[in-house]
Amino acid sequence: MKNIETMPDASKVWVYQSKRILSDNEVNMIAEAGAKFVENWTAHGAKLDACIDVVHHRFIVCCVNEGQATASGCSIDSSIRFMKEVDTALKLDLFDRMQVAYRMGNTIESCSMSELKNLASAGKVNSETIVFNNMVTTKAELEKAWELPLKESWQKRVLA
Known about the structure:
2 domains, alpha+beta, two-stranded antiparallel sheet, 160 residues
């Protein structure tokens, strides 16, 4: 079965973040539904070389090898519809882009930007706290720039 590790570095990625940790059953359900979705996912009739993975029991990553076929507007829309179905079925708030995920020790926490600012003011997070940059667009960026110190991220404005 395809997964992110087997995809080329230039592959396009979309990262969807859940506000909460996903259970093993939810991860399995997403993996099965994602495999069925990508099996039939096409762009202008061409089958897309793609995968959908759940990472850290918190993030759903959709990945397409655009060297094989480029995801078009219609195919991207169909992936968004799929993600909305998952979101609705599991009540995950995958489309709340103002949620921030960060590492607290060995766990990944999630909060709103205003809550992150309050945590920074209280000294519970700082410039070195690792945050997730869900704005990455390629597999290479996912591997190199997805987890960053807060001071190097777009969320750094909470430190001011």
